[in-house]
Design goal:
The complex is a heterodimer of chains A (391) and B (292). Chain A has helices spanning 4-17, 19-23, 45-59, 79-92, 104-116, 147-161, 175-178, 181-188, 209-217, 229-241, 257-264, 290-302, 311-329, 336-343, and strands at residues 27-34, 67-74, 97-99, 121-122, 140-141, 167-172, 195-201, 222-226, 247-249, 273-276, 374-379, 382-385. By secondary structure, chain A is α/β, with parallel strands linked by helices. Chain B is mostly helical and 292 residues long. Chain B has helices spanning 2-32, 39-55, 60-83, 91-113, 137-159, 161-171, 173-178, 183-209, 217-230, 235-255, 264-278. Classes of the chains: A alpha/beta (391), B mainly alpha (292). The interface between A and B is large, with 37 and 40 residues.
Chain lengths: 391, 292
Amino acid sequence: MFMKRPLAIAAIVAAMIYPGIASGQETIKVGNTMPYSGPGSAYSEIGKVMKAYFDKVNDEGGIKGRKIEFLSYDDGYSPPRTVEQARRLIERDKVLLLAGTFGTPHNLAIHRYVNMRKVPHLFIGSTGNAWNDPKNFPWTVGWQPNAHIEGKVYGSFLAEHHPNEKIAILMQNDEYGRSFIAGIEEGLGDKVSNIVSRATYEATDPTIDNQIINLHKTGAGVLINLSTPKFTAQAIRKVADLNWHVVHIVPTAAASASQVMQPAGIENSQGIITAAYLKDPTDPRWKDEKGMVDFRAFMAKYAPQANAKSVFSVIGYSMAQATTYVLQQAADDLTRDNVMKVATNLQGVELPLLLPGLHLENKPDDVAPIKSLQLTRFEGETWAAFDPAKQ
Amino acid sequence: MEFFFSQVLSGIASGTIYACLALAVVMIYQAIHHLNFAQGELAVFSTYLAWQMLEAGLPYWIVLLLVVLLSFGLGWFLQMVVMRPFQNAPMLSNIVVFIALFTIFNSLTGFIWGHDIKTFPSPFGFGPLVENLGISRHQAAMMAISAIILTILWAFFRFTRIGLAMRGAVSNPVSSGLVGVNVMAITALGWGMASAIGAVSGLLVAPVVFLEPNMMLSILIYAFAGAVVGGLTSPGGAVLGGFIVGIVESLVSTYVPVIGAELKLPIALTLIIVVLLFQPAGLFGRRDIQRV
């Protein structure tokens, strides 16, 4: 009880000072949770850039004259706090929708709640497999190709081009790491017995050297490294220290040239393979292309403190663009129902930083907006297109 | 056998990391008789200061010296300004302040320098010390530097009057004050030394695990375990304790299949509990005797 009264007073005071906000008609409130602190904080670049992009939209007149108010709260990369913050966004801030909420276990934690409250839960930052289930969760629309699709890309690549190599897997011991496994096995098909060893680590471990040493001893020729950026960087360096010449695959979520490969050492990262759906800002192929030039100009003006070379910035930029697109299309009737109608009927929506050939495309019974990935390989200082057949 | 050997070496390698910070934990325990939860975050803060100076182009050894001095000053300042009002407060209040400092420094570091991971250079290089041994030059240097700090600490407590005064000030502040020891200055000195040692450990750990604001989060737990296993009053014991924790963790997670890598952190915590149950002062610690 004693908690409620100050809140009520604050609300009344706020209503007197800001009558416009209290009536809820002036701004469009978009809610978001992000690990600004805690072990996943490297990802918070996404939230900062989303915020910057909505600033840009507002500077250019907003959505039919209405400004976007982007409320992005810190969950410390801890699912219980994601729940707390999602409640705050929905019950107290009364956001129209959630966009780009980050993390697999974190979105799982709020999945049922936001669907129960019928709040659009769009373009979430997760490779999890649970986001394309419109029958049970009609208010959730995912973003990148899920881990199952990504795992399958790696599995079939290995089955076809490295059919005789033993495979070692390093994975983070949570839903993020596990979500790739079924896809990898499906892609490998009858070569699934090539997997000789699987080592796990906890997100709280200081190092993973011990796991890499153990995997090295199995004599595997392929390492599938299902880790998050800091550990990916550690693993790349340890593999080089051990002089282990291995076909090294890292997930797209940990494939940032500036955040992972540079810290781990460019020379140690040569030949690492990943699958991508976005253009990497360090890739010379896109250097003079309009989408990338616009992106760099935007970053310099609106997010000078964020890293313009990081793929996380590209993710935040693209997520915010997708959200803006949905708001613009739904602008005449900004209800939650109408937002969902737009967000589940995306037809060939072009985003400037999606790889050529990819666009946002979904329908009400298959809501995943991005459905394929392209293999890329680290060469020199950047990711380069890679055609496994021409090796 | 070779595999076993490499597991022990990998344990020693992580043990070195824990041992470095365990030294700082013991130092602060010697000065205030509490565990300082903010120890790791202070070390991270110092490491970021060093990173900033290195970015500005200062040579490594100058930076090391400057950061040790700055961290000493920071520790001194914290005791004199933040901790001083709590000197007669109950232990719980102190612990709350430590936790507050922990959060403040963790967030401050993230706020100032961002959360992306940064490379931190090592003047010793990462090549193997001896071919095929599995210990890098940097790790060997970490051990050597820990040994040097250890020797300095041992000599400080054993041979200097200030060291003796510090031991007196913590075990009996009132009497020490009466015989002319400036308890406040001595405690501040302890904070300063602990922060300085923490800074060195941060500079040594960062090249291995990469620099980011949460770098010391779990290392601190292992360092606590190391310090408790070895004995909170014994710098040498703490270093050895750090190695024991590292080796036990590596061997148990490899050879006990039920445990595996999932239960590595609980191993450290179990060690703390077991040692406290059977040998409360740690393997090498001095038993606290209180006159009643």
